[in-house]
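All the exercises in this workshop are built on plain-text protein records. Sequence and backbone structure share a record, each on its own labelled line. The structure tokens are whole numbers drawn from a learned vocabulary of backbone shapes. The record below serves as our worked example for the rest of this section.
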Amino acid sequence: MARPICVLVQQIAFLVLFYEVVSSARPQHQPDPSYLKFVYNATEFPSEDYYDYIIVGGGTAGCPLAATLSQSYRVLLLERGGVGYGNPNLMTQEGFLPTLLEADTFNSPAQAFTSEDGVPNARGRVLGGSSTINAGFYSRADHDFYSKSGMDWDLKLVNQSYEWVEKEVVFRPELRNWQSAVRDGLLEAGVDPYNGFSLDHVVGTKIGGSTFDRSGRRHSAADLLSYAKHVNIKVAVYASVERILLASTVAFPGSKQSAIGVVYRDQRGGYHHAMLRENGEVMLSAGAIGSPQLLLLSGIGPRPYLSSWGIPVAYHHPYVGQYLYDNPRNGISIVPPIPLEHSLIQVVGITEKGAYVEAASNVISFASPTRSVFVRTPSSPLYLTVATLMEKIIGPLSSGSLRLASTDVRVNPIVRFNYFSNPTDIERCIEGTRKIGDILRSRSMDDFKFREWFGARNFRFVGPALPVDQSDHAQMADFCRRTVSTIWHYHGGCVVGKVVDHNHRIIGVNSLRIVDGSTFSISPGTNPQATLMMLGRYVGLKIIRERTRIRR
């Protein structure tokens, strides 16, 4: 009887220690960001106004794009969500899981959806987009991305754009016990060389950048708005864009359509028209779900499909909503016998065979019984940590599609990603999950095992463990399919060469571009947020240079 009581005391002490660690890791007060001076509720905007650039989506690419264009032009940035700054769940690492779990249909910063594959997922619905709700990992794209993306890249300008982003929102994380152990385990498992701290995509093990600073405060794409020229920019929050306004450029049948503005709706149901000035453009930065959805609702998409919804066809575009991808995530989770810090992704192992191995340790609220005969109910909640090892595959090659669920833009479209429909993806998953097995067998993981009877030491898994025989191809393939989840890196739906050209212009429609991950047919490196922030800055600079050259 002595051993169970001892174990119970150890567990209670462990949980109380966690609570103290989490409580002491609160970010210090920071001054309000300067961009709040030009952010307004959409209800405050006139029923009609004119701009040089109208950007739909104040997310990971939309914010840097707006900040850049505002240096030379009058810009309106429309965001369907609110401001994340000041929300404790959004501003701290501890709020990562609650933000994803506490989602509602129309108002929460994270908008939940479940694909037809049965995998739960989420979209950002807040200024800064998914960069305001994600795990904060920052790493530049791999070199293959530039050659395979279908765009004509100026790599000097790419690097300058990355540096512009990094100066404002990227920090070097401080590794503690779980992340340090994973780093060492990756090296023991042969994921070498060790590249130290690096923002570049390099084969081996490295510490990547983080958008959480040393005090634990999140920085997102919204912070890039601090670069904006204040007199030239307005940001409307709680502004749901319902459709793009199109008009024929010439008054005869078959003439090319041009975007002339957008219609958006505020929280009170009031409608507003944002219209373009001469030579202006509408820029969609609503993401891989929002941009194809808005095109379809605006009559740009497959003619038979739009007609079935009763949507007037403005331009027949058969590939809108097609070639939609999501990088599958697979892994294991354990409850460790020692206290762990709360950490999101900081270390990554990049293998030569196209698998990326990452880790996190999440502090989860532990609910004790409301009434207990023997244990007094604590006045404060206790916390339990779950440590996770996960792998994401490069690509992927498997693709799916998006279709409307409603003509209400606030309702999520119906999405299917077709995970592992391409056999190459399953082979890469097997490679990645076997590498997780190698890490679990490394000496670096010994401290995270429980001591069992007769001296044996084992992990306590939360959810499925890896198959015992990891050389069995069929079992490993079954594990990949059975445990698939998302790492929230979905992309495509308006890919280059099918929907947009290499300058991000919609093929067949004037004055309309897409600047976001919906144009990607491949995910850029280990995490797309660095590349999306760079993209916003990059395209903005190219447009300014292009218009300056034309004026000359």
In short: The longest strand covers residues 271-284. DSSP finds twelve helices and 28 strands in the chain. Residues 1-27, 370-375 have pLDDT under 50 and may be disordered.
